[in-house]
Amino acid sequence: MALLKGRHLFLVVHKIKRETSMSVATSGRTGGSSSGSILDRERIVAKAGFNRWLVPPAALAIHLCIGMVYGFSVFWVPLTQALGITQPVVCGDLGLWADLVTTTCDWRRADVQMLFTICIIFLGSSAALWGGWLERVGPRKAGVAAACCWCGGMAVAAVGIIVHQLWLVWLSGVIGGVGLGLGYISPVSTLIKWFPDRRGMATGMAIMGFGGGAMIGSPLANMLMNHFKGPNDVGVWQTFLVMAALYFLVMLAGAFGYRVPPAGWRPEGWTPPATAQKALVTHGNVHLRDAHKTKQFWLIWAVLCLNVSAGIGVLAVAAPMLQDIFGGRLIGHPELSFKQLDPAQQTAVKTIGAVFASLLSLFNIGGRFSGLRFPIGSAASPLISYFSLWVSPSTPWRPPWPMATVSRLS
After folding, report:
1. Is the model more confident about 93 or about 173?
2. Is the pLDDT of residue 32 over 50?
3. Once rounded to an integer, what is the mean pLDDT over residues 286-310?
4. Residue 12: per-residue pLDDT
5. pLDDT tens, position by position, 55-64
6. Which of the residue ranges 40-49, 87-96, 397-406 would you say has the lowest mean pLDDT?
7. Looking at the DSSP assignment, which residues form a beta bridge with residue 230?
8. If we measure between CA atoms, which residue out of 290, 328, 352, 354 comes closest to residue 68?
9. Which own/partner pairs from 79-83 qualify as long-range (CB within 8 Å, at least 24 positions apart)?
10. I want to staple 158 with a disulfide (CB 3.0 to 4.6 A). Which of 23, 137, 173, 240 is the partner?
């Protein structure tokens, strides 16, 4: 009898455990319980009545932080004087390996600018590789990963500067570049889902912060370097650590501010417009796995690559370019080059360079948002680019100005 009672009790307990586990699993699938990670996509589905205008500030918070990569030019000159402080310690033409591990020679400007190049390469690569993963896990988890990688990369760069190891600085570009890619793409599809009635504006809001990151970051970095620099330090590694900490907090706030709309959600009173046939719009469909097999994909990719390369080529060297070209003319001493200025004058010129990078960033914001919010068409875009070459004072070469050609563009 005791044996039968014991067996019966075991079966009852086993049944209760099984029913409890099934209940928890079902509740987790429906989002009704607190099970699972707070980063999971199911945990960020918005409830009824959620204000969709709370999502753009979260996207901007992340993009304004990672957009500081466009302001990295303020670091190039100080990094080339990390050992010499006021003047670079030059050791002649070292080989690649010697450049990577030397602790007695200052880095050349081309060496430190490679950090920007590596960041941009891994931005594109990580966005392409993990775009599908982001759609599965949701923007919050991608945003947290972006914060860890971008700010972790800045911390690794600080360590590389402390121990004066160029290979660590370059490694930080790999880590930070992955953060750039994840952070760049995380809000795009999310905002488009929230604003199907304003797709152009949604895309503009998603990417304008990235263009504006240097507007805030460049003056902040310059201010921090001036604060931390001393007779034995240029203040760059301290600046990297402080900015990494600040950006990490802001990016986490942005990531946890993300919400995704429920399946089938639409703005109140909005219905999808009837599809209209347009000359430049195709109704065909090519799957992602087959897109790279078409010539159209590579033609579009080539145009975008050339376009982006031209723009970021200027952004990557904006501050030192202004300092080298204009030198003392920026502060009323046209007879002096930048290297002939005293330390106080050089500091003033570096501040002007940071402001210049901020202005580029400001108009980068305007171009990204207005170009998508108020589309100008494929014919007017070349006209604006053509005219910009003429009005830019830093353009070393200007194209011919045949009015007949320009009129045909419009």
Report:
1. 173
2. no
3. 82
4. 40
5. 999 999 999 9
6. 397-406
7. 233
8. 354
9. 79/107, 79/112, 79/161, 79/234, 79/236, 80/106, 80/107, 80/108, 80/109, 80/112, 81/106, 81/234, 82/106, 82/107, 82/161, 82/164, 82/234, 82/236, 83/164
10. 240
- Amino acid 408: pLDDT: 40
Q: 29 or 120, which is more confident?
A: 120
Residue 22 CB contacts under 8 Å (≥ 6 apart), including other chains:
none
Residue with tokens 């004066």: 164
Task: Please state, in angstroms and rounded to a whole number, the distance separating the CA atoms of residues 204 and 211.
Answer: 11
Tally of residues, the chain: 410
Distances (CA, A) of 168 to 106, 154, 232, 253, 314: 15, 11, 21, 29, 25
φ/ψ (deg, to 5) at 45: -70, 125
Tens of pLDDT along 188-223? 888 888 988 887 777 777 778 887 888 889 899 999
| Residue pointed to by tokens 């301290």 | 238
In the three-class reduction of DSSP (H, G, I as helix; E, B as strand; rest coil), residue 106 is classed as: coil
Widest CA span in the chain: 109
Task: Considering only residues 375 and 49, tell me which one the structure prediction assigns the higher pLDDT.
Answer: 49
Strand partners, 45: 260
DSSP annotation of 275 reads: P
Q: Output the six-digit token pair for 144.
A: 């947290």
Q: Who's near 95: CB < 8 A, 6+ residues apart?
A: none
Q: How far apart are CA 261 and CA 259, in angstroms?
A: 7
Go through 320-338 and write b for each residue having 16 or more CB atoms within 10 A of its CB, e for each that does not. Answer: bbbbbebbbebbeeeebeb
62-114 residue pLDDT tens: 999 999 998 898 999 999 999 998 888 888 777 888 889 999 999 998 899 99
The DSSP result for 313-348, as a single string, is HHHTTHHHHHHHHHGGGGGT-TT--GGGS-HHHHHH
- 0.70 surpassed by pTM: yes
What is the spatial distance between Cα 302 and Cα 298, in angstroms, rounded to a whole number? 6
CB 72 within 8 A of CB 217: no
